[in-house]
Write a structure and sequence with these properties.
mainly alpha; 13 helices; about 45% helix; 6 strands; globular; two-stranded antiparallel sheet
Length: about 300
């Protein structure tokens, strides 16, 4: 999969080659030419248009929507007691609303409000780091448990019911983290969700002042690559397997290890002059977590 960076005419970056090959294992070379680039500059200074792989016929057909709708209608009555217990636990153990609402990017760049059970202390509108790790957020007493078992994601079944999401698809991103147009509905689980289930623990080992930059340069393109390749070959049975793997918590930590243990990570560590190469830190962290079933899920 390749992509092109398109810079607006007259941009201060116009001296950079306007068509740069982009791969998940070479993203740092592109960004290396722009060392002062910040996350907020992405939308303002250029648009990242990844050359799309057409989603499979299953991803685009009405049968998938019918499957999602039917599964949710069957599951909701069975899950209602869990909804009530989780909601009560959140209300009793922490101050604030039971549900966490946030704007995410859906199909064809349309934004919608995602629903989650709240797992972090109520912020009263104060700013939070948009890249979550196990170390940079204040969780509620029941928050880690809800994330470990993915119970915080259950309200998204309502997002599936109204058509904003699917059961399987790329995770919906914050608008500033969406690097390409989604050609299908985002999902509760997906290929990158399975691979990056322990993402927050891995990111916790990085210096906080490099966290956003590393997430933008390495993590997002790697996730996009996984999801795009999956969507191009998705079938009913592959979706069903991902759903079962998610329910049974069969996380593929080896896939994250393969994606992050690349020359791109080495190059990125040299750019930022980390005392310990990022590839070494991340690879060691991923290796230690691969055999450990405890985690705080990323989103």
């Amino acid at each position: 999969m390749s992509a092109k960076l398109h810079f607006p005419t007259g941009s201060e970056n116009s001296s950079i080659d306007s068509t740069v090959p982009l791969h998940a294992d070479g993203i740092s070379d592109t960004y290396a030419a722009m060392p002062s680039l910040r996350k907020s500059d992405v939308a303002a200074r250029f648009s990242l248009s990844l050359v799309p792989e057409r989603p499979s016929s299953w991803e685009l057909c009405g049968l998938k929507r019918f499957f999602d709708f039917t599964c949710v209608l069957i599951a909701l009555p069975l899950l209602l007691p869990i909804f009530l217990v989780v909601g009560l636990a959140i209300r009793v153990t922490s101050r604030g609303p039971v549900l966490f609402l946030q704007k995410r990017t859906g199909r064809h760049s349309r934004t919608f409000t995602i629903l989650k059970f709240r797992t972090m202390t109520h912020s009263d509108g104060s700013a939070r780091n948009s890249v979550t790790t196990t170390e940079n957020q204040r969780f509620t007493p029941v928050g880690p448990f809800l994330r470990r078992w993915k119970l915080d994601e259950l309200p998204q079944l309502l997002n599936v019911l109204v058509g904003d999401m699917s059961l399987v698809g790329p995770r919906p991103k914050l608008p500033e983290h969406q690097i390409a147009d989604l050609r299908c509905r985002p999902g509760i689980t997906g290929a990158a969700t399975i691979a990056f289930a322990r993402e927050e623990q891995v990111l916790a080992c990085l210096p906080c002042h490099h966290l956003d930059d590393y997430y933008l340069r390495i993590i997002l393109p790697a996730k996009h690559r996984l999801d795009t390749e999956y969507m191009a070959r998705a079938t009913f049975f592959s979706d069903l397997k991902l759903i079962v793997d998610t329910i049974l918590r069969r996380w593929d930590g080896a896939a994250m290890h393969r994606l992050l243990n690349t020359d791109a990570v080495e190059a990125d560590s040299k750019i930022h002059k980390f005392k310990v190469p990022v590839s070494t830190v991340v690879s060691t962290r991923v290796a230690n977590l691969t055999s450990d079933n405890s985690f705080v899920s990323a989103d």
